[in-house]
Structures are given as C-alpha cells and as structure tokens.
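Pipeline run #58 for the internal structure catalog. This entry was flagged by the ingest filter as a single-chain record with no existing model, so it goes straight to prediction. Upstream metadata was stripped on purpose; only the residue string is passed forward. Reviewer on rotation: M.T. Logging verbosity set to normal.
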Amino acid sequence: MAAMTHSCAPAPKDERVSVVVLTFNRPTELRHTLGQLSALPERPPIVVVDNGSQGPGTNGVLKDFPDVQAVRCHANLGAAGRNAGVAQVRTPYVAFCDDDTWWSPGALKHAADVLDSHPQLGALSARVLVGPQNRDDPTCERMARSPLAAHGLPGPALIAFMAGAVVMRAESFRAAGGYEPRLFLGAEEALLALDMAARGWRMAYVPTVTTHHHPSPARNNARRLVATSRNRIWIAWMRLPWSEAWLATFHHLREARRQALLGPVLAATAVGLPWALRHRQVLPPDVLAMHKTVFGSQPPRQP
C-alpha cells in the first residue's frame, strides 16, 4: 500500500482583494502590521500609502518588504491618502487598515465571498478586536444593534462604517469620489458612506470578518476630537436638510462644550463652513430616512 503524502504547497492566492495601509511617522507599528499582512494565507496585494512621513524610518521598513507596493504622498493628506492607494488597486475589492491595524487570517477571503454573493453590498464593516485581550470595539456593539432593515444583507444594515476596518468594492469607492481631502481625519468616513448610500450601495456589519487594532500611543486625542466635531458639522451642512443640519450643529457644539473644546471647535468649523455650503447636495429621501432612523434614535450621552 502506497504511503500517504501531504502537500506543503501554500494555499492558492486570492485574486479578489487588495489591502491599502495608511501610515504616517509610525515605523514600528507599520513593521508589525506588514508582518501580519504578509503572512496572510490569501497573500493579498498590499499597497502602503506613506502620508509624507519624516525621517528614514518608514523607508527602512518598506525596504524590508519588497513585495509591498509603496505610494509616497508629498505631504500628510489625512484620510485622502487612501485615494492614492486605491488608484493602484486592480482587484475588485479593497480592504483598508491603518498602520496599527491588521486583518485576521482568512478574513479577506471570507469578505470577498460575502461581497461575491451580495452584489448590492458596497462595503462591509468588520468586527474589530482591540488590544492583546481582543476586546470588541464599542463601535461594533453599536453596529450590531443597528435599527435599519437588513433584508437580503449578510448582517445588520449600516449607514456608516469604520474607515480602518472595512472591505469595499473598489467600484463603489471610486464612484462616490473616495475621501474628501478637506476633512483630513476624524469622521471622514461618514461623508463617503452617505455618498455611497446615495448611489444605491448598501452597507452591513459582518462580525464573522475580523480585524485587529492595537491603538498606537502616538495620538493627539484633543486634536482628533476637534476635527471630528468640525467634520460632523460640515457634513451636516453638506448633506442634510436645513432643520436637521441646525439640530446636528447644536448637538455637536453641546458635546464640544462638555469636553471643554467649544472654542477650538467653533473656530475650526467657521473657517470651512463657506466651503461646506458650496458643496451642499442634500441626500435622497430614502437615505435621509435611514440617517434619521440611526442618529435620531440614539439616546443623548450622559454627562
């Protein structure tokens, strides 16, 4: 009887999904993330967008990963750096992560399978496991409780997603215009999600697709809070009816005051408000109804 043999050949490469990684001045985190991504069984094409990092650190990391395609921006473009990454993507699907985030083995194949079987799905937001303890990100808990009708979707329906933990159709990303450079960072995905929904794409939370996030300590939380509040107010004036835009503005200003950031938020918002109004294009009624269902049903935050 012939002895049984076991093949050690690697799993076939999945040609459906690429990974776009956004990085800025965090070479240690980038090295770890690229190590994780390079070991994935799907062997996805990886595009690293260097958002104008200073010093030799990032270049040194990229030299150690010769199979990774590098895109170097002339300056820090914030979230809009991802647009340059997607411009290099040739697969139908694109997964996003930051330099402190990486996809679980098998997650990208599973995401591509889900997108293959749900042609109306423009983006799926993954379950995010935070830190060495693999704690669920609180945002995932809120997505799991989405009040939107999810008929025909592989999970709870969404009208937003997490920018660093989403797999999209490259087609839907490009059709919606990608990330708006003026928003830089902070709720930047909200505008893209609304514009995708306005074009008929659906979004869902698919917790069986997982990614890992080990937050970098190199963060300026106060600056991010100001930018997030500013962007949410701008987006309200860009896409919501007048009455709802006023309500959203008052809500975010109250939150800013609660966080002792009212002055910086007012100043940052005022500078770009004329620009936001020039780009005003109110959402279709069905998308406005979804937006109101989600954000109108949330209880006020406790002080």
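catalog note: Residues 31 and 64 are 9 Å apart (CA to CA).
catalog note: Confidence is low (pLDDT under 50) at residues 1-6, 297-303.
status: ready for reviewer M.T.
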